[in-house]
Amino acid sequence: MHGLFVTGTDTGCGKTEISLGLMAAVQATGPSVLGMKPVASGCARGPDGLRNDDALRLRAQGSSKAPYGLVNPYAFAPPIAPHIAAGEAGVEIRLPTIEQAYRTLAGEADQVIVEGVGGWRVPLGPNLFVSDIPKALGLPVILVVGLKLGCINHALLTVESIQGTGGVLAGWIANQVDPTMLSRDANLATLAALIDAPCLGVLPWLEAPTPSELVGYLHPELIDLQPRHAAKLATTQTRTEARSDAGTGKRRA
Ligand SMILES: Nc1ncnc2c1ncn2[C@@H]1O[C@H](COP(=O)(O)OP(=O)(O)OP(=O)(O)O)[C@@H](O)[C@H]1O
Ligand SMILES: [Mg+2]
User: I need a labelling partner for 61 at 20 to 30 A (CA). Which of 4, 28, 177, 183 fits?
Assistant: First the structure.
C-alpha cells in the first residue's frame, strides 16, 4: 500500500491534525512518508506564489522536503468552495495532474498521506468531486468524524457514499472537536455499531494538538485491508494505470 486518503465529515473536523498524526505514527515505525493536499482554497500569496497552511504543515512533516507544487498542485487564494475558487481563477482542476503529482511523491517515499478538501462529496468542477481522487489514485480512505452533535448522520451518509460507490473505507477516526460534547461515549458506541470498518483511534479535545502527541491515540496498524478490499483496490489501480497509459500513448507488455 502506497498511501491513504483522509476525508472527513466536514470542513474543520480535524483532517489536517489527523493526517499529520498518521504521518508521525507511520514514521515512528520506520517507513518514510510524504503528505499531499491536492486541492486547497484559502491560500496566502508569498514570494513563491500561493501557499496553503495545511499543505505547508503536511510538507514540513514529510520525511523529505518535496516541491510545494507536488504537495499542493491546485492552490486558490479565497477561502471558499474549491470549484468556485477554481472557476473564479479560470482554472480547471484535472485528475491527471493530481495523479502525476501523487505518483512522483509515491516514488520518493514509502507512503503518501493525502488530505482531501472539505468533505467527501465536495465538487471540484462540473464533473469532478473529491470522492473521485482516491478512486483515481487507488487509495483506501480514512474517515475523520468530527465529534459534535449531528456527527452520526454526517458519518453514516459519508460511509454509505464511500462504500456504495466502490471506495474502500480502511477505517475511521473519531476526533473530539467540541470539548463540551454531551454523551460522547454513547455517540462513539453508536458509530462503532453502525460503521462497517475499524475505528483507528479516538482523539480527545487537546489544548494544542501536535503530531507526536496524536501518535498515542492512533492505531494505523488496525487498517482494514481484507482480501476483498485489496482486490477492489487492485482493480481500481489497474484501471487507473490503463487510463494514464492511454493518455501518454504507453503500452504494456
Ligand atoms: N482533537 C482536537 N482538539 C483540539 N483542537 C483540535 C482537535 N482536532 C482539531 N483541532 C483544531 O480544530 C481546527 C480544525 O482542525 P483541522 O485544521 O485539522 O481540520 P480540517 O478538517 O483539516 O479543516 P479543513 O477543512 O480546513 O482542511 C484546528 O484549529 C485544529 O487545531
Ligand atoms: Mg485541513
Answer: 177
Query: Dihedral angle at the C-alpha atoms of 48, 20, 34, 65, nearest 10 degrees?
Result: 40
The residues whose Cβ lies within 5 A of ligand 2, an ion, are 15-16, 54
How many independent structural domains does the chain possess?
1
**Average pLDDT estimate for 2-31:** 96
Residue 212 belongs to a domain with what CATH number? 3.40.50.300
The Å distance, Cα 13 to ligand 1 centre, comes to: 6
Residues with CB under 6 A from ligand 1: 8, 11-17, 54, 118, 175-177, 203, 205-206, 209
- Compute the Cα dihedral for 174, 15, 195, 112 and give only its sign: negative
Whether 37 sits among the annotated catalytic residues: the reply is: yes
94-121: per-residue pLDDT in tens?
Answer: 999 999 999 999 999 999 999 999 999 9
Model confidence, pTM: 0.91
Residue-number span of the structural domain to which 164 is assigned: 3-30+95-248
